[in-house]
Amino acid sequence: MAPSTDSNVKGENSQVSYKKDINTKTDRVLQNKKHANDIFDVTEYLQSEKDKEVIFATNACSKIFCQLFYRGDLYVGDLPEEEDLMNGDRSAEEKYSIFMRHRYNNSVELLLENIGHKAFQVKETSLCALMKFVAAEGKHPLQNLDLSEHYNFPRELLRTLVEHLLSENEDMSLLISRFQEFLEMDDVRYYVMSSVRDNIYRVMGRNKKAVIPVYQNNVFALLSTINVPSSEASKMKNFLVKQECKFVYYRGIEHKRAFEQMWLVFLKFKLPSNMYKKILVILHESIMPQMSDPTLLIDFLSAAYDIGGAISLLSLNGLFILIHKHNLDYPDFYKKLYSLLDPSIFHVKYRARFFHLVNIFLSSTHLPAYLVAAFVKRFARLSLTAPPTSLLILLPFICNLIRRHPSCRVLIHRPSTAEGPCDDPYVMKEEDPAQSHALESSLWEIKTLQKHYHPDVAKAAMKINDPLTEQEDDISELLELSTFELMERELKAERKTIPLEFDTATELLKSSREVLGVHFSLE
């Protein structure tokens, strides 16, 4: 059955009617103060069940109140109660400004509620309208201030907006990504950082420092979009609220301090395990360089380093920066690094980064021989069960370590191992490298790998039979090598044609010579 044309007409008429109604009421409010009560009809649409009506009404409210700000028709100062309008000796103009100021406050409350609306377009429109109000309040303050001494920024409105963005029950990451546009402005960014810091204290303190996954994901989504400018004040010229008075956020050092405090407060509380990984991935590039004192992260990095697994691997980057650039003294660092070496390191997503950092940590020629030997032996033992892609990293890596530390060559040239089978004194389960007896052992594992099924692995293992050159092998290209790439390389390799039979076959299982022999015997 075909749909009724009457229903289509009604739908079009209803769409035209709400737009016409809102536009008419908006014009009446702006054109004549006598029609101020029409504002109730416009704001009522903000609570409509139809998304299009809410969006249209939001834009109308934005237009109305921005105009009222510009005209100076909103009451400035401590707002009297609406019930007191009929009492006291107030002029009609003052009563109107108080009335419209209350309507403005009601609209802001409804728009903040719509930040949690189910439709993203409604959320986005409400966010943009609220940021227009932030700009309007900044240019036309609603409080009596001496602008020669004070800088006015609508911190309370922005604080409330941030509070709704950092929901405890709903993922707001998409809306936060839309909010990133406003964080490019220096004044907005500065007060957002302060608001986020206070919000974290309040929410996490109220929940007795328990993990709140949704809330903490929202906080991380917002924090990771904030980038502070350089310390030069001359570069800070992008403001939402432009005033002649120079406030603290004109100075880059204040931004760095606010950025630092915000992150430190966030990292102070317990985090979900997946959150540690997200933070540690960006810590060394996006967080530490923007802090005034990166050494304040030592507690967080130490706690992450002690968790184990992939989280410990990722924390190495931050610890490396603190140790090499900020002279951090980390006790038992190599002992902990040694304990991270287990079969899982060959299968984690961050394998390349881990081997790159371990290579740097073991690059010093001043490390004791027993320590380097323990790492070499541990890698060699793990190589027995490692996949080919990891072995192609491990074998040249082990050779490089021996090149840097000639005292470890005894692991290759140990006469006792050539006489026959013997017990390996190396203790794999020992957590302390000093007690592992690695220097008393040999690299029999590498000898075993010379019979590996993969020809590239066997070839790499055979290099240890020859005298090691002083030039180290470059393993940088091998760090990202995948199994697929290894297979592709094998398939594309050029192969020589090898003759399998000298005589031309004339039958399925006989050569021409064998056929002739059969004929001769018959004769």
Structure write-up:
Among the domains are: 15-144, no CATH class; 334-413 and 424-522, no CATH class. The chain is an all-alpha fold and 523 residues long. The longest helix is centred in the N-terminal third of the chain and has 27 residues, at 5-31. The protein contains 22 helices and no strands.
State the order of secondary-structure elements, H for helix, E for strand: HHHHHHHHHHHHHHHHHHHHHH
Q: Which structural class do you get from the secondary structure elements?
A: mainly alpha
Give the assembly state of these chains: single chain
Count helical runs: 22
Q: What composes the largest sheet?
A: none
Radius of gyration: 36 Å
Average pLDDT level: 84
Global morphology: elongated
Which residues sit in consecutive blocks of at least 5 with pLDDT less than 50?
1-12, 518-523
Say how many strands there are: 0
N/C terminus separation = 94 Å
The helix fraction, in percent, is: 55-70%
Strand content: under 5%
Protein name: Nucleolar complex protein 4 homolog
GO biological process, one term: ribosome biogenesis
Transmembrane segments: 300-323, 354-376, 382-402
Domain CCAAT-binding factor: 312-461
Features:
elongated; transmembrane helix; Nucleolar complex protein 4 homolog; single chain; disordered C terminus; CCAAT-binding_factor; disordered N terminus; transmembrane; 523 residues; mainly alpha
Topology:
Blueprint (H helix, E strand, L loop, with lengths): L4 H27 L6 H7 L6 H21 L20 H23 L5 H20 L15 H11 L7 H7 L6 H21 L6 H11 L28 H17 L4 H15 L10 H10 L1 H17 L7 H7 L11 H11 L7 H14 L5 H17 L10 H4 L25 H6 L5 H8 L20 H10 L19 H11 L1
